[in-house]
Amino acid sequence: MDPTGTPLNVRTTPNGHIVGTLINGYQVTVLDRKSDRKGKSWVYVGNYEDRKPIGWVFREFIACGVERVPAVRPQPRDDSGQRNSRICFDPAASEDERELSCSAIIEAGRESGRTLSMAFCNRGHVFIEKKQYDRATADLHQAIAVDPGYACSYNNRGRAFGFMGDYDSALADYNKAIRIDPKFALAYNNRADVWLHKEDYDRAIDDLSTAIQLDSKFVLAYANRCLAWRAKRNFAHAIADCNQAILLAPGIPRIYLLRGSVFRDMRKYDNAIADYSEVIRLVPKNAEGWRNRGLMWLFKYDDDRGIADYDEAIKLDPNDAESYNNRGQAHLSKGDGQQAIADFRKALELQPGLPNALNGLKRLGVTPSNTTPDAVKGDTR
């Protein structure tokens, strides 16, 4: 046991990169066990109440029998300071709570070195999640200035640069993170995202394979490698990786969307429909599942089901031009010119110049600028 009350490090893999901490006395549930190359025991822990995964911690510091971080005498500090440390470094806390608590640590001026760097890094992560990328990079610059040897700060700054479209800067930061911590699986995954944007799929696959080698349960790495294999049109490998991602985490809609798209590329439309239906079951208020399944019905020449799915997609996202265009194509196929014209016009209103909508109107003998009801009736007779 650690008699100083020092927080217990949480890692991505056994003896891997530190992504957070747990305060002494925090109750956890052990979800998995593993030994590292030196034979030391590690446990994969989650929240005691809901078993939500947290990460890997050193088994020696988990109290026997109760499976919790040992409650020992804390360092002498005020209660608010303890609370701020717990929340700032707790990945399960809300974004607003983490921002406030990390800010309190930074502004108190009591911390230095790695602890202060982690506070800047974690607040920077919150700003990334809030899409406040300028504030994120400012915090991450500070984190690196305080502790240039903390790999997580480079990784997070790389993410911010990536979201800002500065892929070269993102790549440079991921390279630094990996040089500092060659076992940092998340940095390999994130660097692969840069390679995907640069359409360098072989390098993406290499990095994602390394990430998976470091962490065999890294769901996002399997999903991203599925995406890379799809881009290379290696559908067998893509399906295998998506299957593994779903096996590890069966409730993530994005992975079903991705596998459905692979099946669509393979022209296995029934399989695609099954995956898009699962997306609809998981997130019925998200238009993506509806519009993707609607397209599959059109590919199977089932216009009525396609129209029904696009009706739902448009209710949920009335600003998607492709949904109106595709519903218009289904109405055109059914011989309903009036509805087709209305949908093509709406698609062009949302996305001027949309080729398929223009072609649809042309097939009906209608010009985009011809909007009078009498003219429309005359064009569709």
Instruction: Give the helix proportion (percent range).
Output: 55-70%
- List low-confidence stretches: 1-5, 63-77, 370-381
Mean pLDDT: 86
Q: Assess the beta-strand content as a share of residues.
A: 5-15%
Distance between termini?
85 Å
Largest sheet: 3 strands, antiparallel
Number of DSSP-assigned strands: 5
- Alpha plus pi helix count: 18
Shape from CA axes? elongated
Briefly note the structural class of the backbone.
mainly alpha
Order of strands, widest sheet: 3-4-5
Q: What radius of gyration results from the CA coordinates?
A: 26 Å
Short description, anyone?
With 381 residues, this protein is mostly helical. Helices cover 62% and strands 8% of the residues.
Keywords:
two-stranded antiparallel ribbon, three-stranded antiparallel beta sheet, mainly alpha
Structure description:
The chain has a domain at 8-61. The protein is 62% helix and 8% strand. The longest helix has 17 residues, at 113-129. The protein is elongated, with a radius of gyration of 26 Å. With 381 residues, it is mainly α. The strands form two sheets. A three-stranded antiparallel β-sheet has the order 3-4-5, with no helix packed on it.
Sequence-ordered SSE layout with sheet pairings:
Layout: E1 8-11, E2 18-22, E3 28-35, E4 41-47, E5 53-58, H1 79-88, H2 95-108, H3 113-129, H4 133-146, H5 151-163, H6 167-180, H7 185-197, H8 201-214, H9 219-231, H10 235-248, H11 253-265, H12 269-282, H13 287-299, H14 303-316, H15 321-334, H16 337-350, H17 355-363, H18 373-380
Antiparallel strand pairs: 1-2, 3-4, 4-5
Helix pairs in contact: 1-2, 2-3, 3-4, 3-5, 4-5, 5-6, 5-7, 6-7, 7-8, 7-9, 8-9, 9-10, 9-11, 10-11, 11-12, 12-13, 13-14, 14-15, 15-16, 16-17
